Structure formats: structure tokens, C-alpha cells
Amino acid sequence: MADVFISCSRLDRDRVKPIAERLSSLGYSVWWGPRDEHTRADEIERQFAEARAVVTVWSENAQNSSWVLAQSARALDEEKLLQMRLDNFRLPAPFETLKVAELHSGKSEWGMLEAALAGLVREQRPLDPIDHRALQNAQPNLVAAPRLLLTAATIALVAFSGAVTAAYNGVMRTDQLQLAMLGVLVVGALGTIVAGQRLFSIRRAGG
């Protein structure tokens, strides 16, 4: 039984070989796809099923491989999928929302992969596959709700000042002032409610 099953395109064997060698040098037993076209399907199935981790090596070739897509989907379902990307392209859904070690454009995120692999294989810790860096970039802006509340308070204050000034100058009677004050209170209350609901929904969306 191999510790690691590498899923990759057969066209990328020369690029994947150094990856397999590095993982082997770290003490993991590695099986990486069909050795040749004569490898039996049941042998591939056995190696996949018994592996503790599946490392998908994504590339322009791999994204067009039905084998790689199927193996990656199954590994994700079995909670043992790790990912590497050799070319700069967008991963197919749902894999683009998961963590991926970048090995292209001058990037070399081996540390991420090795830490996840050690946790999964040696420490038997469950994976946290979600790419929280992407989620952080998508966090809603919590400033929107306080701004809405401030706007409502400003409108209410301006209306209140106008009503008091009008009453002081004799333009507005007492009963009219009371009615205006009631309107100011209603506007302020509605603004506060809307701002509170907005803040609550934003916090829920942000997790």
C-alpha cells in the first residue's frame, strides 16, 4: 500500500517525476498513475483505494483528462485530496475553491503541501481543504452598516434642528413641532433598524 497516489496526466510524466521523487525522499511511499498503457485498471483502483492521500498535479493537460477529474472528485469525496498546480490557469469547479500548492510563475509552495501531507498521512488529522485566503479576499465590507446608521442619524439631526429653528422663529406651531419631532423619531428608528439588519446579514455572510 502506498502512502500517496499521484493523479496526473500521462503527458506530464517528465514534469511529475521530480515531484514523486521529492515525496519519496521525505519518506512517503508513492504510486503515481499508470506505469504504462498495459497497467491494469484493477491495479490502479487498488492503489487509489489503499492510498492515504491523493495528490492531484494540475496542469493544462490534466484539466482535460477525464481520469484526473474523476480521481480528484473521488479523493475529495473521501477527504484525502491534496492539490498542486504546475501551470497558471483556473482550476475546474469545485477544485478552484480548495487549497492548492502553486508550482509555477516562480512560486514554490512546497511547505503547504508537505504540512498537509504530514498531517493527513502521519498524524491522521482531517483535512481542511478550503482555501481561506480566497475566502478572506471575498469577505464583505463591514463598514457599510455603520455608514448607513451614521447617515440616518445625520438626517434625523438635521430635521430636528430645522424643526426647532422654525418653531423658535414662529414659523411652526407647537402641535406642528410635535408632529415634526414624531417624524424625526420615526426616521431615526427606521434607519437604525435597517442598519442593524444590514449589519446582521453581513456578519452572517462573513461567517
Structure description:
54% of the residues lie in helices and 9% in strands. The protein has 207 residues and is an alpha/beta fold. It folds into 2 domains: 4-137, 3-Layer(aba) Sandwich (Rossmann fold), CATH 3.40.50; 144-205. It has a 5-stranded parallel sheet with strand order 2-1-3-4-5. Strand 1, helix 1 and strand 2 (30-31) form a beta-alpha-beta unit. The relative contact order is 0.10. Mean pLDDT is 77; it is low at 134-146 and 198-207.
Mean residue pLDDT: 77
Helix content: 40-55%
What string, H for helix and E for strand, traces the elements in order?
EHEHEHEEHHHH
Number of domains: 2
Low-confidence stretches: 134-146, 198-207
CATH domain topology of the largest domain: Rossmann fold
Our estimate of the beta-strand percent is 5-15%
Number of strands: 5
The gross shape turns out to be rod-shaped
Q: Main sheet?
A: 5 strands, parallel
Please write the CATH class name of the largest domain.
Alpha Beta
Strands of the widest sheet, in order across it, are 2-1-3-4-5
CATH architect. name of the largest domain: 3-Layer(aba) Sandwich
Kindly report the name of the CATH homologous superfamily of the largest domain. Toll/interleukin-1 receptor homology (TIR) domain
Put the structure in a nutshell.
The chain is built from 7 helices and 5 strands. With 207 residues, the chain is an alpha/beta fold. Strands 2-1-3-4-5 form a 5-stranded parallel β-sheet.
